[in-house]
Amino acid sequence: MILPPVLKSGDTVALVATARSVAREGMQPAISLLRSWGLKVTESSNLYASCNQFAGTDSQRAADLQLALDDEKVKAILFARGGYGTVRIVDQIDFSSFCKKPKWLIGFSDITVLHAHINQLFGTATLHAPLALTLPDAPAEVHQQLYDILFHGKIPVQTVAPHPLNKTGEVTAEIVGGNLSVLYSLGGSKSALNTEGKIFVF
């Protein structure tokens, strides 16, 4: 598993919308939070575009993601919101620059497409974590965990209560997963998630 570099004060995070459309006011709380962490925030060109339910056309959303992946000044990408739409553009994206210089991709829901695609094809870690739209309302503990991962590479320890039907024992493995409805829609594609030998969480 390849871990992207940790962030430092003054680094740039890009806000990108690859799925449903967002309003400017909906992004401001997340922007303020990131700036309070000492980060610079850049808003993608089509962040507030709208085409039906989407944040712009497929080509606009793909172009914004491609630019953020290729821009060496951008050290992490926080996705605006989920819904649906990322699967429509994932095959248009060239990940060659990302593979050479990986950066943290942060989001959940529809962003599961990117988590699965990148894990399956490139083996690079991504963060199943709040989106820009939901991050401000997340508990303080979640903010702290995200900060610790991004700035210190500190992966949180997760404790789950046992179930009577569990098999007892210990296991250490890579954690993969995400939104189950997105994962089953990827079945049969090159983005389909391989869960063999991994801990699958959905």
Can you characterise this structure?
The strands form two sheets. The protein has a five-stranded parallel β-sheet with strand order 2-1-3-4-5, with helices on both faces. The chain contains six helices and seven strands. It has a single domain, classed as 3-Layer(aba) Sandwich (Rossmann fold), CATH 3.40.50. The protein is α/β, with parallel strands linked by helices and 202 residues long. Helices cover 30% and strands 13% of the residues. Strand 4, helix 4 and strand 5 form a beta-alpha-beta unit.
Brief description of this entry?
The chain is α/β, with parallel strands linked by helices.
Instruction: Please name the fourth-level CATH homologous superfamily.
Output: Murein tetrapeptidase LD-carboxypeptidase, N-terminal domain
N-to-C CA distance: 20 Å
Our count of domains comes out at: 1
Arithmetic mean of pLDDT: 91
State the helicity in percent bands. 25-40%
Low-confidence spans: none
Q: At CATH's second level, what is the architecture?
A: 3-Layer(aba) Sandwich
Q: Mind describing the biggest β-sheet?
A: 5 strands, parallel
